[in-house]
Amino acid sequence: MKRISLLLMLLTSLSLLKAQEPIVMNLWPDEAPNSNGLTGVEEDLKGGRVANVVNPSITVHRPAKPNGMAILMCPGGGYARLAMNHEGHDMAPWMNALGITYVVLKYRMPNGHDEVPLSDAEQAIRLIRQHTQEWGINPQCIGVMGASAGGHLAASLATLYTSEETRPDFQVLFYPVISMRPGITHAGSRTNLLGSEPTAALEEKYCLERRVNSRTPQAFLMLSADDKSVPPANSLGYFQALLEHNVPATMHIYPIGGHGWGFRDSFTYKRQWTEELEKWLREISAKGSVL
Q1: Does 117 fall in a domain?
Q2: Contact 148, 234 (CB under 8 A)
Q3: Which of 132, 196, 201, 242 is the most buried (most CB within 10 A)?
């Protein structure tokens, strides 16, 4: 009898582990609606980075006990490459432990075709909404998260979404690129997204502090005051715009840390930002009647 019980426990544990295996889904199984002009094969760079993404996808990390919340993560990399580990998959065990369905986006680089990354992000959130029942997700509790240029993409989704289906319910931004204005923006991200000589109208479109309105989802921003890569003015301008439009927002500025820390243990204030974000996400879950 004991052997049977142990066998049943083992089978149950194995089934739970199997259920938590990541699911990889192609964004465009047939053909993408646009092109960035890049061909060839994906480049595997050092340190968990990839470049020349030709087959964009999402990787879905499902928790054993979903609480109904889902987060789409957009890694950074200056719109030239993607930091898939410390700004992507490394956060999955933590998110899953909170009950969150955590989805990492591998999106195509713009290569001067500004519409490409946002179209991938919109398709990703469509796919999540198409699987809400299957994955135990509350369709009104789906957020977007992004770091650096991935933060610009996340904020683009939050301000430039084209339908209610692709509008996120909240946004979490790590040291994000927000503006495209010279002197404030990250020069590499601007050039890669808009090209070397963008029109004034195109620059204006992607100055996301100017795209905020009353329907922009609530936001959590975090950054370091000594960030030399993406000036804090990016986050400050976005935060001010959110407040002006009565959008709930919170911002945490840490005195040191520079840029690009993501989920790395080397960041001095990792315990602080993770605890603050956990509390904020729980508040959202409670409002969404998830917990």
Answers
A1: yes
A2: no
A3: 242
Q: Return the SS3 of 120.
A: helix
Q: Are 254 and 269 in contact (CB under 8 A)?
A: yes
User: Would you state the structure tokens that stand for residue 27, as one six-digit string?
Assistant: 């964004």
143 belongs to a structural domain: yes
Residue-wise burial string across 49-73, b where 16 or more C-beta atoms lie within 10 A, e elsewhere: bbebbeebbbbbbbbeebbbbbbbb
| Helix or strand holding residue 254 (H, E) | strand 249-254
Beta strands (DSSP E) in the chain are: 23-26, 43-44, 49-51, 57-61, 70-74, 81-83, 101-106, 142-147, 170-174, 218-224, 249-254
Residue whose pair of structure tokens reads 């993406």 in the numeric block: 230
**Residues spanned by the domain of 165:** 38-287
Secondary structure class of 266 (helix, strand, coil): coil
Q: Rounded to two decimals, what is the model's pTM?
A: 0.92
Cα-based distances in Å from 60 to 44, 105, 182, 196 = 20, 9, 36, 35
DSSP helix/strand/coil, 123: helix
Q: Sort strands 43-44 and 49-51 into parallel, antiparallel or unpaired.
A: antiparallel
Question: Is 194 in contact with 224 (CB distance < 8 Å)?
Answer: no
Contact 32, 113 (CB under 8 A): no
Provide the CATH number for the domain around residue 67: 3.40.50.1820
H or E segment at 97?
Answer: helix 92-97
pLDDT at residue 48, as a whole number: 92
Q: Which residues partner with 186 through β-bridges?
A: none
Gap between the Cα atoms of 71 and 22, Å rounded: 14
Domain count, the chain: 1
Residue for token pair 């002197």:
183
Please report whether residue 167 resides in a domain.
yes
Residue 137 lies in a domain: yes
pLDDT single digits (tens) 40-83: 999 999 889 999 999 999 999 999 999 999 999 999 999 999 99
Q: Categorise residue 58: left if φ over 0, alpha if ψ from -120 to 50, beta otherwise.
A: beta
